Structure formats: C-alpha cells, structure tokens
C-alpha cells in the first residue's frame, strides 16, 4: 500500500463513520440531538455540523481556495444560485449536503497522486493564528482531517451515550475492515 492508498483508506473510514453517526442521530429526538453538553461543539447537532464544515473547508483549501467559507456561515453566501442564508436546519438537509460533499471528496481522492503529497496547501486560519495564511503539506492536511474527525467522533459518541442512544454507532476501522471481509465472503 502506497501513501495515497493509505490516505484514501483513512478517508474511506472517515466517511463510513460519518454515515454511522448520521444513522445514530436519525434515531434521536430533536431534544436529544440538540441537548447541551460541556464538550465538543456543545451538542450532537453542532458537532455533526462542525464535522461537515471541517470537511468542506479543507477540501476547498486542497482545491486551491485558501479562504473557504462554509455555506451558511454568512447570510447570502450559498453555492450556486441557491437562495436563503444556507444554514442547515434539519438532519435531512445535513445528510443531503454530506452526500454531495462525499462525492466531491471521492473525486478529489481518486485523482490524488504521490507527487502532490509534499506540495503546500494554503488556508487562512480561523482558529490558532486567526486570519493568518498558513502553508501546510498536502499529506498533513489530508491526515489532519481524519484525526480531527476521530477526535470529534469520540466527543459525539460520548454525547450519544449520555442521551441514551442505543446501539451506539460502530466507529472502529477494524470493524469496517471486518464488515468488508464478511461481505466479500458472502458475495464470493
């Protein structure tokens, strides 16, 4: 397995986990989904939106937009000719946008090649050093997104546990691998 294949695998896992989290969230009441917690982004809902926002802005940076704006962050700033402020109000809308984002990621990752991994990716920071434009190796950006997702996923799992969600979503890479192996054996 080369570096690009490894990065693709990490992103495949990230997307699988996202789908599992969305599935678990779909079984919650609005109250549970938006219940306030002193961890993560403050609620399951806000943490899921945060995960999607991170995936969006980092993909935009990888594609050359060094100051990306997540649709809905600023009124009137939506992709294409859509109207409204773009804020995501429902789990259905979040899921729909995530599917579209997954397609964009799949296209990007399919074209990824070894020679581009050391190239710098530029992004204006919204956190540490807010407003400063940083250049970071493409490989590090791609791995950062996956480790960020794992960290945030752990927070969401903790919140799901506290609202009594059952069963908790499976988020382990080994589970994905075993699921794939089992389905391959059944298909063969």
Core attributes:
single chain, 188 residues, mainly alpha, Four Helix Bundle (Hemerythrin (Met), subunit A), two-stranded antiparallel sheet, 6 helices
Task: Summarize the structure in short.
With 188 residues, the protein is mostly helical.
CATH architecture: Up-down Bundle
At the third CATH level, what is the topology name? Four Helix Bundle (Hemerythrin (Met), subunit A)
Strand content range:
5-15%
Helix content range of the residues, please? Answer: 55-70%
CATH superfamily: dinb family like domain
**Could you say which structural class the secondary elements and strand pairing correspond to?**
mainly alpha
The biggest sheet, with number of strands, parallel, antiparallel or mixed sense and barrel status, is: 2 strands, antiparallel
Q: Could you spell the SSE succession in H and E letters?
A: HHHHEEHH
Flag low-confidence runs. Answer: 74-84
Radius of gyration: 17 Å
Strand line-up across the major sheet: 1-2
What does this structure look like?
- It is a single chain.
- The chain has 188 residues and is mostly helical.
- The chain contains six helices and two strands; from the N terminus they run ααααββαα.
- The chain has helices spanning 3-26, 30-34, 44-62, 91-111, 138-162, 173-187; strands spanning 120-124, 133-137.
- Strands 1-2 form a two-stranded antiparallel sheet.
- The longest helix is centred in the C-terminal third of the chain and has 25 residues, at 138-162.
- The radius of gyration is 17 Å and the shape is globular.
- It starts with a helix and ends with a helix.
